[in-house]
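Guanine nucleotide exchange factor DBS-like: structure tokens wanted.
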Amino acid sequence: MHSPSRSVRFHGNAVQAFHGYDGSFPGILHLVLVLRPTTLFQRTLSDFLFKYNRDEFKMKVVMLSSVTELHAYIDPGQLTTELGGTQEYSHESWISHRTAIEAFALMVKTTAQTLQAFGTELAETELPNDTEATTALLHTHSQKKDEMKEDLQVALSQGGRLLECINEPLQTDDEYNMTYDELENLATVQRLLGQLDETERAFDDFWERHRTKLEQCLQLRHFEKHFREVRTQLDVTSERLSGFSEVSVSPAHAEHVLRELSGHEDKACDALDHALSLAGEGDRLIENSHYAEDSIRPKCSELRGVCEEISSTLRSKKSLLLRAMELHHALEKVHVVK
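Answer:
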């Protein structure tokens, strides 16, 4: 039997507990239902204490004399059997489910934070200036992305197992009615899984944009490298072409220069073909919405301009040499007639 002092301490603690509960709920606590103790002394003492402390409560507190009165406030279908209800309650099972759900909620939060940190790292990464570094970066980021996706799948699998555990009674009894706690657990897990799905979709969208940017960066570095190589070939071709003189001293000399020019023309055409092919590749990059259009387009124009200049110079020199040969032959005929 409880002593009066213990009962006073108990009810004093109960008053403090109500104040604590009031601050713990996410919303406003409007009503507290209290079942009176069964013994006469405890009932009398509790009535006195709650009446004496009534003004201290920030919410309405209703003292109930019996479980029957409790049913006037709460549907028995939402109460456990010890309170005259129909809900089966296992404290061990409740703790097990809550622990698992809280662990899953922490995993969802940690996974989202990890993905967000990885996304920030990707967004702040500077694009490399050469093909080797870009290739290595794309490989490294792809590996990290795969690891992130594996962690995400682990979290989704754990959530799926939790759902199966909560729904397990329904597998054996189609008419089973879930308790309020089970329905709440089910809604919580489904909400967390929904958050994971949204996180995964957002991450996939971000990764796709990042991967495209890295691949376009790699395309740009290849284009720039080939541009430098082709530009060097064109400079060499143009320089060699400028070494051919249009002036000839005899038909034989003109024919010799023309022959060498024709031989150089074959090599020049190869360089021009490479340059025009690279310009076409640049056009395709632009058509595919490459982010570096402002850098690619001028290079394509430059390649085509140099190619046109070389082709024009080549045609001009050939034309002048052919006219020189004709002139030399005409002069020879004049000398023969004389």
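The first strand starts at residue 31 and ends at 35. Residues 180-242 form the longest helix (63 residues).

Cheers.
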